[in-house]
Amino acid sequence: MRPFALVHARTLEEAARESARPDAALKAGGVDLLDRMKEGLDSPKTVVSIAGIAGHDRIETGPPGRIGALATLAKIAEHPGLRKIYPALAQAAAGAATPQIRNMATLGGNLAQRPRCWYYRLEEFDCRKKGGQDCFALEGENRFHAIFDTDLLCCSVHPSATGTALLAYGAQLETVSPKGKRRLPIEDFFYRPTDDATRENILAGGEIIASVTLPVPAAGARSVYRKLKEKESFDWPIVETCVTLTLSGGVIGNPRVVLGSVAPTPHRCVEAEKVLAGARPSEELVRRAAEAAVQGAKPLGQNAFKVRLARVELERALREAFA
Amino acid sequence: MKDGSKGGFTRRDLVRGSLVGAVGAAVGVKAPEAGPSRIGPGPAPLELTVNGAVHRLSVEPRVTLADALRETIGLTGTKVVCGRGACGACTVLLDGETVCSCLLLAHEAAGRPITTIEGLAAGGRLTPLQEAFIAADALQCGFCTSGMVLSCQRLLARNPKPTRGEIREAVSGNLCRCGTYNHVFEAVERAAGMKKADAGTPADLFASRFPAPDSRLTDDPRVAMATREAMDAEEV
Amino acid sequence: MADKLRLGFNGKYQVKDVAIALGDPAPWDPSTKFSVVGSRVPRLDGPAKTTGAARYAIDVRLPGLLYGRILRSPLAAATVKSIDLSAAKALPGVRAALALAEPGEKIRFAGQEVAAVAADTPERAEDALAAIRVAYDPLPFVVTIEDAGRPGAPLVFEGQATTRSSAGDMPSGRKALPREGNVLGPRLTSKGNVGEGFRKADAVVEGTYVTQVQTHNALETHGLVARFDGDELTVWASTQGIFSVRDELAEAMKIPASKVKVITEYMGGGFGAKFGARIEGVTAARLAREAGAPVKLFLDRKEEQLAAGNRPSSVQWIKAGATKDGKLTALHLIVRGTGGTNGGTGTSGPIKNIYACDNLQVEEFDVFTNAGPSAAMRAPGHPQGSFALEATLDELARELGMDPLELRMKNDPSEVRREEFRIGAEKIGWQTRDSRRATKDPAVRRGVGVGAAVWYNTGDTGPRATVTIHRDGSAGVEHGLQDLGTGSRTMVAIVAAEELGLPLEKVSVHIGDTRMPFGPASGGSTTTPSSAPTIRRAAWQAKRKLAEAVARQWKVPAESVVIAGGTVSAPGDPARKVSWPEACRLLPDEGVAATADRAENHEDAWKRFTGGAQFAQVEVDTETGKVRVERVVAVHDCGIVLNALATESQIQGGVIQGLSYALFENRILDRQTGRMVNPNTEQYKMAGSLDVPEIEVILVPVWDGVNNTHSVGIGEPAVVPTAAAIANAVSHAVGARIRQLPITPEVVLAAVDEARAKGGRT
Predict the structure, then answer these.
(1) Is B103–A35 a contact, with Cβ atoms under 8 angstroms apart?
(2) Which among A6, A38, A74 is the nearest to B84, CB-wise?
(3) Residues on chain A touching C122 (C-beta within 8 angstroms)
(4) Is the peptide bond before A215 cis (omega within 30 degrees of 0)?
(5) Would the pLDDT of C110 be above 70?
(6) What DSSP string describes C659-691?
(7) Which residues contact C92 (CB under 8 A, 6 or more apart)?
(8) Cα C507 to Cα C497: distance, rounded to the nearest angstrom
(9) Which contiguous run of DSSP H or E holds residue A138?
(10) CA pair distance A267, A261, nearest whole angstrom
(11) What CA–CA distance (Å, rounded) separates C518 from C516?
(12) How confident is the model at residue B11 (pLDDT cuts 50, 70, 90)?
């Protein structure tokens, strides 16, 4: 890491002002930031720490649920209320990284972390995500890269497990910036590479996630989160699936189907949702919905298998949701 | 306190990122000062409360807790293996929770209780968990052991009778290259009193209880001829 | 003198005349009632390692210590134009800077050493690295075997292949071999006539098997701390060979070996890549000399992945034939492997040395690529070779309509291993393996597979040890051996305690220092069979000296004094009987000491190979391609086990490394730039606690009489057959052959599809 000054902010507003300055970086748990700084990807002159700010790690089950952005993944994973009311979120948090990292990493940091694309993660590669001209993964080693939106200049996948779950829940984010506070649906949070290949989300100019609000689950609400990894101990997913829906009178309502680790953003499967909405669960429906979900996939040279696995995992998630 | 030049720190201490002192028992966290506190980029003083002792040191903000513990304070039981949070060798307890000290800034740990592997065996007496690690041979090269023990200590503190699955999960962030995992699981079960320490029954391990084959010992004719050749081929 | 020894295993012994060297005790008889040997002894350094007190080389702190770092090439092939250290040298705290390459010198892999610095903090050393300016002329490169073998491919070496030469590196054999472009070889092994053998065969199978590059990833990285006191150099090294480090440093620094002292109190794993001082070690010493201050230089994980050695890849074409009754008639192996800028990629150990076959042909080629150099890795060549060979045997058995285990038993000349097959088969439930393929979940299939190990129960002369018996009845051993984590320190204590008849706590062990009598480098499963007989011999001689001292006091002939069961006596004279402590009190102040050299192996004993058989049971999700290894039964022999607990640990470790190799590990090079894209412990995937199976270890004791303790190493055999057994189990589960490692979901799904396409059982 190159030298930097460390600022301990006392409020989020203060942190927003400080981190809006040039060459400043915001740090919460710091797991991702320090990893990048150690590799030389980021060399901020000032690191603004919000880790010590009290009160932003609260978890209110609600409903509606409200989680402070400084709540750790461990606290979310273990929270009895969340596990009952928003189980897919708790499972997403529980399945991330390692016990040690879950004790450090925060919800805000998990949402705002940078991709794990190995080309991006190595200082030797001047890739698009760093403002360079090339996406090395497009023609390179791309087993773990995107299968959707692969024509968008950068084919890294979004790394946030909680992002996948929160998109399925239709969560809202509250942010603080030097311009004030705002509230936005999580759909609007994620950036596609065509918006700006060097960013994965809307945060800029000192904007900080303050909290996340989850909608009140409707009657008969069900949610399922699944993660498929090569290795069970600390591994990034090949594919994640998260499904939320209601089942009332044997009819599926308000389905939201999200695939994670398959695209530069958590990937909402609108075609699958159309198949599911208003239908009655059946094995045939499961197959049709999963097929619809991967219809638009455009895998790269080495990752066609991810399309197959996305379909299998979504079938399983739907069966679980209907069970 | 931009340069962190507080009384008691010599210029050389500040430059070298040195240990300033280790005194007495833990003291309370200092009240925050007015205005956002800004330190560095040069060395700045801080107090780390490690295993109940307060260490006053002066390091740059970029120094990680792992490096401050190892290089400045000299508590080298904490190991750094990957430096990126992906192996758990640097695990310490911060506020009682396991964390990767390689991804924490020393300055951010200031004033918070830190337990390293050196802090477990109070007064030179091994904890039951440490004893169980030794008895179950849950260590080989020993380089992952500090982190493993602390992850297991944390597990037992919360869950005195963990299942095998819970033990596996608890150490899933601790990479071992020698392959001690199964013995680590046994060690935790022993420490939890769930598995009686066997009194060393080598017979369990040996095949002697199996029926003897109906065959007689003969010299393997290929062996003498092939030994040299094999050694040549292997270049071991 | 020749002794009549009972040698054999499992209660079946034959008597052989074995010549025993003067001053060496005869090998133990199978009737021996051991007091310590063979029991489960917790390792002596357990308290130090569980409390953080154990001081590894990387933990050494010295007054005025500087931190060294190495700058590496980001390019896979280039010519160095210039290296400018001036800006780095001008930074505060920077005390030394060196160019490690000359202008005009060729860079052959991304990660090759270019320059080095030493500064007073790790952070300042990092700043200094960033300030070094290097200009390169990029050159074309090759990183795959296929590309490297094409006509007109860029050459890794234009002239003579200058592979590295630190101890444990993998040169391309000692003999001059033909070379065409980047391809060196073949190294030929031939026996009988394979053409004739295949003509005699009733069934012939062939296939191509591909394995990946595996990196060692010892948790403690490579490096050392170097301190000059005048012209004397003291080094704390993380090494498998303190003496080979000493000699390499003496040569590189042009000082006598007698002025170099190497210390390894504890070390965090090696697995074959840590024998010599290597470039980083010599660099640390050079920086220390230039700075006039001690330097600690350890690689970080990324450097470790790029430049600290690896197990080469392989592409193995293998063909096998057998008669209807299952007798092998011909085996033919052609292998190309790449160890980057090093060689040593052969995989023929298993095919040459496990199953008997009169007609054998092996052709081995090293293919140079612009990638980090290979180094010896736990059973070099064997896990690769075993994977291809054991898969081929399963294919042959299917072709013959024969049980795969039966085919092995018919062709295995090793009686010990045949017994191991029997034991393992019973434990894993081999007979019912087909009926257990189905599970409750229709997507999940179970499979059981087997693989065999071979290794060479050598151990050699060279080691020397001193055993001292003190007046207070305690004993000390000095032996310049290093403990990699295998339990060598404890092994030394066990052998001395057994021979002297002392409880373990009365024996102190001093190892890990080149000022002590010479100890062997720890590798090739040779440590225990090299050291244990040395320790026993020295203890035996010290014991004789105690007997002589007592005899002088008693004024009886020395040979009439017997030391056994904690007493010293002259049988037939009831007055002449004292306890061990009483006897020791008769010694002079300095006690008695004996220094002994290891005796030669007994060529007339039961010389044989080490065996081993492993069985794996897996569950395969045929929809996701995910493999879960449920259980491994590992049946091994390593002579007479000195410490059953540490042996079990080491075998478990071999199985886990083998599983990790079979399922996960893979060094991935970017074909566009030649750089490794996963130089970490996150994307270079190694098995963790949630991935390991139940492992049952069973040992078959063998009294082979080759040395006075019947001791044999277990490090290598434990890792040899695991990948083969797992791959065969996956093949059994899905009904199609696995021909590639690691067995990723894609590989499994391709096999599932293959089985479906041929209408096979899935």
Answers:
(1) yes
(2) A38
(3) none
(4) no
(5) yes
(6) HHHHHT----B-TTT--BS--SSSSS----TTT
(7) B15, C124
(8) 6
(9) helix A136-139
(10) 8
(11) 6
(12) very low
Residue A62: its pLDDT value, please?
85
> Can you give the pTM of this predicted structure?
0.95
- List Cα–Cα distances, C742 to C319, C596, C616, in angstroms: 22, 47, 16
pLDDT digits (tens, 9 = 90+) for A68-113: 999 999 999 999 999 999 999 999 999 999 999 999 999 999 999 9
Give the count of alpha carbons within 13 A of C246, CB side only.
24
Active site residue C716: yes
Per CB-CB distance under 8 Å, the chain A contacts of C663 are 230-231
B7-11, C376-380, C392-396: segment of lowest average pLDDT:
B7-11
Report pLDDT digits (tens) over A232-252.
Answer: 999 999 999 999 999 999 999
Q: Please name the chains neighbouring A, where neighbouring means 3+ C-beta pairs under 8 angstroms.
A: B, C
pLDDT (0 to 100) of residue C388 = 98
In chain B, residues with a C-beta closer than 8 Å to the C-beta of C380 are: 234-236
How far is residue B135 CA from its own chain's centroid?
18
Q: Identify the CA nearest to C41 among candidates C642, C700, C701.
A: C642
In terms of CA atoms, which chain B residue is nearest residue A97? B173
- DSSP string covering C504-555, please? GGGEEEE-SBTTSSB---S-TT-HHHHHHHHHHHHHHHHHHHHHHHHHHHHT
When CB atoms are compared, the residue of C672, C683, C687 closest to A118 is C683
Report which residue type is found at C349.
G
Q: Which of B145, B175, B179 is closest, CB to CB, to C49? A: B145
B196 vs B190: CA distance, rounded Å: 6
Return d(Cα B68, Cα C406) in angstroms, integer: 60
Contact A49 B88 (CB under 8 A): no
Length of chain A: 323
Taking CA atoms, A270 is separated from C54, C488, C573, C599, in Å, by 58, 62, 99, 77
Shortest CA distance from C127: residue in chain A: A2
Residues B236, C526: Cα–Cα separation, whole Å: 10
The amino acid occupying position A69 is: A
| Cβ pairs B/C, distance under 8 A | 295
Q: What average pLDDT does range B177-202 have in this prediction? A: 82
